[in-house]
Design a protein that fits this description.
Layout (H helix, E strand, L loop, with lengths): L19 E10 L2 E11 L4 E5 L6 H9 L6 E6 L2 E2 L8 H4 L1 E3 L12 H7 L9 H6 L2 H20 L15 H13 L5 E5 L7 H14 L4 E5 L3 H7 L2 E6 L2 E6 L1 H6 L1 H8 L20
Parallel strand pairs: 3-8, 3-9, 6-7, 7-8
Antiparallel strand pairs: 1-2, 1-4, 4-5, 9-10
Length: 284
Amino acid sequence: MPVGLHTEGGAPAASFGAGLEVERLTVRFGGLLALDGVSLAVAPHEVVGLIGPNGAGKTTLFNAISGFVRATRGWIRWNGRLLQNHHAHDLGRLGIARTLQGVGLCQGLTAIENVACGAQPSLHADLGSALGGLWRSSREERRVAGEAAALLGQLGVGDWAHRLPGSLPYGVQKRVALARALISHPRLLLLDEPASGLSADDMDDLSSRIQDLREHMSVLLVEHRMDFVMAACDRIVVFNFGEVVATGTPEEIQASPEVTEAYLGDAVGATPTGVGKGRVDAAR
């Protein structure tokens, strides 16, 4: 069984469903309750957005899926098998990729080298080949470099491929980080605030690209830019105080008076604010 996947030890039998399933997930940090019985699902080829105030638990959920934190109760299933005791370095082998709130690029590597780093889980050359400079390693390097260059080109930043991150505009850095996630060919892409710091034009472009990604993968994203969420997502899950308080299509979420007042304000473009008392979001 692949690393990080277990079904024994009193866990419920794995379902035969595909996609991501989170069931009654609870996460505590000492006396602080970050997630309280959260249940949600992301179907294959679906884009789902998580919204809610700062501290509502959105990034904690991402961290639980990514293996950074452990659940106190509840289960996470990925393509019908339970995720338990997995770690962030297992994500590539599980077919999951994640971007961070900050771009997280290696400052000493060029844009194309940063993207190539994301291909590590799919490399076939062994350590001996790499250290010895053998043909197998060289062939892998050429393959990865070509794929990295192609991804940067597809995302419209190919001209920046050989520049260091510090010299790149922020919007370009965001696209490099996205390319680094995509080069591992994930089946589930986790995007943590992908639209933060982007211009209106860049947000429109990113929304269209995320819709195109549905053809190849599922997408779960956390975002505060409500206009972006409404345009990019098929469904929206609303968090508050570590709980799911509403789920629906963008139209249904907009039509809910309670959700509109609490999270969207009077205008769709409003940014939710506020931190729940007694609850924490581990990354905020």
